[in-house]
Amino acid sequence: MKTILVPIQNTSAMKSTLETAVLLAQRTGAYIEGVPLWFGAPEFVVAELASSYSMETYRARREEETAGARKLFETFMQEHGVAAVRTTTDRPSFGWFAEVPPGEGLVGSHGRAFDVIVMSRPDAETAALYKRAIESGLFESGGPVVLSPPTAPKQIATNIMIHWNGSTEQARANALAMPLLRLAGRVTVLTVVGGQGVPGPSADQVRKQLRYNGIAVEAMNVELDGRSTGEAVLAAAKEQGCDLLVKGAFTRNRLRQMIFGGATSHIMEHADLPLWMAH
């Protein structure tokens, strides 16, 4: 896992996101690329509104926001000892790429050329556009998204928990996490008894798969005890001191999650550890 994409906004949440990205890059010797995440309208739309909003004003605002995002990103990397030029394969490096279109869709499209995308996890106050940017990464990039908690951990992927629910989405998340699972000192496969899940292979079969891949793995079963599946998963990860949770995203479709709730939505909005997610 050698390439990490970080969409940048000049917000307070970026500190934890960048700290998480640097931890991940230090773990794997990866290249981190920053791109500006800007939710302005496309230029052809602005051109149609030129009488009330000039193209010059639009471009000046975009250039100002892009410059601020770049300064935030590059200053952070330099302060944390990340090199602007790759020197050895085992040390992280960074770069900036500004030639991306505005809008949340760039996360999914540009993210297809990276091993993983790192973003801030949402909460109840997160703007809908940023949530759609996360979904773009999950549904359109073809790869995983790491969601950083409000406070970054001191280390990452040393003690990993997998929430096994039998689903295709979870199997994909597991497969994409293999490079980190092999690096981890401890891996636990969690089953929530009575929790949300779909028909599929048992947790024992998943542990067998991981062992054949050279990964020592432990089993853990928990009951709901009046909690939701998401609450039970996060409690188990906290109890075990995990620093990464591997979770398939949206096994139930997004509409059902919005109406009835779901483990993905709860975990995304309440996790205090990094999430490795894939759809």
UniProtKB/TrEMBL annotation:
Residues 210-278 form the UspA domain. It comes from the Bacteria. Signal peptide: none annotated. It holds the Pfam family Usp. This is Universal stress protein family protein. It comes from Bradyrhizobium lablabi.
